[in-house]
Each structure stands twice: as C-alpha cells, then as structure tokens.
Amino acid sequence: MADNVKRFQPVEVPDEPEVDSRAASVSASMIALGLKALSQRAIAATKDIFTLLSVATGFWLWNSIPDPSPTQIVSLSLYAVFILAANVIVRRV
C-alpha cells in the first residue's frame, strides 16, 4: 500500500493569459480612483488629528498648573481662545 503513494509529482505551470489592453486601463483607473479616495480620507483625518492635538495641549497646560495665579488664568484663557480660533479656521478651509 505504501508503494502506490507518489511523493513527488511534476507541477505544470500554465501559460500566462494575455492581458487585454482595455482591462489593463480599467484596472489602472480603478487603482487610481482608490488611491485618490484614500488620500482624501487621509487629509480629512489630519484635520481631526490637529483638533485632537490642540485640545490635548490645552488640557495639558490646564492640568500642569496646580494652583494658578490670576495672570496664569488669563494666559490660559488667551491660549484657549487661540486654539478655538485655529480650529474654527481649519474647519472652514
């Protein structure tokens, strides 16, 4: 029974099919369309990352001062207004 088992068999490699030029151009245009959509989503994500990082810096500054003086409160408020204005400008563009 063990004699009937073939351990090595030659593998036949089929010839490569001919690629139609129309199919190749459609494939290339679909890949380009997919990359365009991906890049547009990446640009939209950078706007969200900007907002997240700017709010995180404001929180870090607020959290790093345990007992703020009135001058520090005013400066933190001005920084918060600046961050708010920058985020509004980024959202409108």
Supply the number of helical segments: 2
End-to-end Cα distance: 77 Å
Rg calculated over all Cα atoms: 30 Å
Helicity, as a percent range: over 70%
Strand % is under 5%
Largest sheet: none
Determine the structural class based on helices, strands and strand pairing.
Answer: mainly alpha
Low-confidence stretches: none
Give the overall form: elongated
**SSE string, helices as H and strands as E:** HH
Average pLDDT across residues?
85
**Strand tally:** 0
Polypeptide structure, described:
With 93 residues, the protein is mainly α. The protein has a domain of 48 residues. Helix content is 72%, strand content 0%. The chain contains two helices and no strands.
How are the elements arranged and paired?
Blueprint: H1 21-64, H2 70-92
Give me some keywords for this one.
single chain; 93 residues; 72% helix
Give a short synopsis of this structure.
The protein has 93 residues and is mainly α.
